Fold each of these.
Amino acid sequence: MHPDLHSHHSIVIVGGGFAGALTAMKLLDRTEVPLSITILEPREELGRGVAYSTTEAVHLVNGPAATFSLHPEDPDHLVHWLAYNASRYGWTLPADIAASFPPRHLYGSYVRDELSRAIAQARAGSTLRHIRSSASELIAAPHKVRIKTSDGELIEADEVALALGVFQPNPAPQEAPVASHPAFAASPWDAAALDRMMEAGEILLIGSSLSMVDAVASMESRGFRGRYHVISRRGQFIEDRRDAEPARDFLAERPSPTTARALLSIVKTERRALAAAGKDWQGLPVAIRPHILTLWQKAEDVERLRFARHLRAFWDVTAHRAAPDSYRAVTQAIADGRLRHQTARLLAMTPANSLIAATLKTRADVETRSFGGIIDCRGHQLHDWRRISDPFVRSLLDSGEVRPHSTGFGIDATIEGDVISEEGRIHRNISAIGHPLRGVAWESSSITEQRAQAIALADRILGKLTPLALAAS
């Protein structure tokens, strides 16, 4: 007996940040049958998550608008949306919209508006319900999945998508003595904490990547005129994104390297060749990015872990460069002699009246200095689910419905995103998208990767539900 083609097929999306909202949008845009979608998300607005909740105008997306359309079949969609909508959100349009780097909060408004558009234009009978609560338990069955919310509601669905986003780790031991100190900010996006540092003579910034740029841009926009002391363990320092000519597709010219050492050797050779030809190294990430998924999935775990341990810091500052407009605050502070960078590791922090004393291990010595403010700019993202304290994550692991990925990044799943249980059973009606798939796909956190995953996930779910598929069953 075939299911009723006019019945509602139910889908619960756990997490309503970028990945969850985009999945719902793609389902509504592409369905041929009525859908009943429920998103569990405690935040008031869908589509923002952590990344797009910041309201600071100087916090920008780190890629040009031309690359971040939500609809790859319409690459100018974001550009057109900005042209028609940016002014009503308080953003002055630049002369070249396609090459601009919009504020992240504005991009979040774009995601939210597009989800609202998808709901309004959805196939007759389709619905989307936003429950402002968190999931607390998942109960799997062959044909249905039950999700219990933290408010005690029990929701039954045909499909569940885990779009849980990122988790913040517990404070490190060296942070505990200053966690409540007014001169300490555990995040560069804590506006109130940054406001308190305006009179500081010198601020210590722990980390030298994108979050550091956010912190400096925020302080400079407030009129801060003190000094910045930036530390990083490996001595890396992020650069701004330049409009470089893409490098040739050098990885396609040879068999894929299977070790981190071999990959590094090939990339270093290509970088030297670019330098000899007077070309910008920033053409390299464009050439490497299409191969990342294949390289990662072909590698053995020992090589994946070797990459994460030794090369991740270098990859992060190579692939994830800063928006030029926000980075300008960094270059100006350097030019003014107000920002310096040091290779160092933070050992301890202790209160020193209104200041904080930080003990740093440099390459040559151990030193203790006092700062009027300290901002943790390491952009903490806890990917090891075994260390995450979130009750729903703990419940998923304790029940055996999911298992940690063998690399320690995210959870185990098929290449397509179907979740794998502790016993090795593939859940055909429980999927994951975005950050939980870090171990499966590595670069699973960016807009372009999550966009591709959301489209593939929507098509995979709908492939089970379209009238044509049902008629053939």
Amino acid sequence: MNGRAFVYGWSNKGGGTLFAKHDMRLIEIYILRRIVVMFFAVLLSAVGITWIVQVLGRINFLTTSGQSFFYVLKFSSNLLPAAFPIVMPFALVIAVTQTLSTMNQDSELVVINAAGAPRSAVIRPVLLFAVVVSIASFLINNFVVPYSSMNMRQMVAEARADVINLVVQQGTFKEIDTDLYLQIENRDSNGAIKGLFVSDSRDKTTDLIYYSKDGLVVDTGNQSLLIMKDGEIDRRDVQTGNVSIIKFNTYALDLAALLPSDDKDVSIFPKDRPLTYLLNPDPNDKYFQQYPLRYQSELYKRLTDWMYPLVFALISLAAAADSRSHREARISASFTAITLCLVVFWLGYSTGQSTDKNASMLPLLFAFPILAAVSAAYALVTNRQVGVPVKWSNWLRDVFAAPQAAFAGAGAKLFGRKRGGQGK
């Protein structure tokens, strides 16, 4: 039995006047099921697109690090948790408004109201699911995301620390850092290197060039050494231009010296910290000593971001919970709800970007979502429908009417030509 038949059958059973608790529970489950299915469809699609964009943004690192496919897959999986807290509120507002708008177009909301069902039959499942989404957002944002972020930074540091893997492509120069290049001619399965060339011009006063016929990477536990055999070191003074050449039979070079300065240690930022650390940061943390306000700003964001699914659910209900006549010339409830949610989210996000330098704006992180939630709740309690004014609706409809008609006319002509060609 489809949804529409279920609602009509239920209303006839109720006689249009009686509404049992069992019937209300059935209709709540029906609405909740449709919202959950739509929510996960939108969420997984949006997160998948976000994941692809994030991976493409790091494609240079992934293709030059010389790692296996499973390593790349593990690395890219650490990008997923950060996308969920951002996408979940918008997936919820789309799921709620689309479900309720469809039910209104199919006259299901009209049938529910005519049967004497209270408004809570529509509101309760939405708010219940919004609370679940808010709790999930809080847990992901405060515990899963910091763990995955730390894991990703550690993997990046380890991959960049393996300098030989960065240059595993034989016969090509690789820029390890600014003014630091490395090349190998050949590397066999045992790790032995043939034809090693290193050019280091990071010191503005001295240029260094290392060359050796053979080489081998040795891990001593505390450090990794590049053992070069049968080679020479060319040292050139930039100011005087004097060049000195040192030949050697064996020379050990610490690979840490070839790392970029910002990759020798894993940098940990406030957004990488779990909530427990933000509540009680280590006073000896150098980053905390330099930027204490950034830790406070991140803490306020963590304590407010989870509210947006619940706020967006209230806005969606205020825009689409009540049945509307098909004769009403208004912008769709989905457009209204998504627009309002975007405005609320933009206010919170832009404020969060400013709190790193201005502590007086921290209370606004709480004020915007709370004010939006109270306004939407007030609209629900007083039976006020949130929507775009009729004048604006008519203006927007007229703006898009001409292009839509032109597109439809072009399509009709093209379709007619095709049919005419087939007839000939």
Amino acid sequence: MAVEVSARLKFAIEIARAAGDLTLEYFQRSSVQIERKGDDSPVTQADRQSELLMRERIAKAFPNDAIIGEEHGEAEGTSGYKWILDPIDGTKSFIAGVPLYSVLVGVVRKTESLIGVIRIPGLDECVYAEKGQGAWWTKGEAAAIPARVSNRNSLADGVFVTSQVDTFDSRSAIEAYQRLERAAYVTRTWGDGYGYLLVATGRAEAMVDPMMNIWDAAAIQPVLEEAGGTFTDWKGKPCIDGSEGIGTNGLVLNEVLEITQDYPRPS
């Protein structure tokens, strides 16, 4: 089984790079076409084509694996492995010409998240992890080095990041954002997959998402846990299907939970 997982990690890194390179063909181009989905979130041909690229390569290399992606739905499999894809996490950054969007690739077996890749094409930066094998960070052509969370034990000395402030308001939790902002030394809304990469590499202490989909979360959990941190829902449960997320260095988790647990997700 270990060999099976490691082979998929190697492949996940490769397709994340290929998909990221494809997005760069559209990045900062005025001709990129932007559509609005049913939830009013934007999508471009770069999202759709980069996901298709990954799906086609997975289907060829691992034909019995299931696939689920943000833009093209779910394909069933029989192997027990499922690839979970977000071709552009941070499409709003992408269409604004900001290079802080990411390609996310996760692999789960049953309900266990085994592999995570967070690639930032615009910065040529990547963190990746396999459960039990550590997390690794690479930039450009440099050799990968271990990815480790910070050792700061208080938000008062740390960095809190999120994606978009009004998502807190959409679940009646704007006060949660305000309390987190007051508690932190620095607050920024770089967010999306890049925010979790910052936590995994020790440059931020907490990343909080009021709303997430499984394709946003699947790659994040193994990366943060293997980097020495945590990825949980707002009540502190480790999961990728809780429709919300908290990524921390572990040392500030309880401080964050003291705030977020006061704002249960509306039923």
